[in-house]
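User: Quick one: structure for sequence A, then sequence B.

Assistant: Sequence A:
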Amino acid sequence: MHVTINGNQTELDDDSSLHQLLQQLKIAEGRIAIELNGEIIPRSQFQQQLLSKGDRVEIVQAIGGG
């Protein structure tokens, strides 16, 4: 299925969860926020939140500096 991640079209397996997406993209679940179709998804729901064809996902990573 096709979903849009940070503005880029991506092909994913059907029934992929946000957690599986992060694994596929090699993104640690540390300091990130995910917006799915305009709604912020709590970290506690990453494993059970399934993606659907045409979903829009925005992933933001917090980066510390000094």
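Sequence B:
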Amino acid sequence: MLNFSALPPLSLYIQYPWCAQKCPYCDFNSHAAPLTVNARQRDEAYVNALINDLEHELPAI
């Protein structure tokens, strides 16, 4: 069992699932999505959902 004198640093990776094009080496759940009028609304909704989820989980961390 590892015994730390201090907690290791906390890291967080957030995958943004929309790309201009799908890279051939990418294994992430991502989708090529051209910029449209609705893209800004989509992006804002996604970021707001991420922030809400992180704030909800914060007490557990």
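The CA atoms of residues 15 and 28 lie 8 Å apart. The chain has one helix and two strands.

User: Thanks, that's what I needed.
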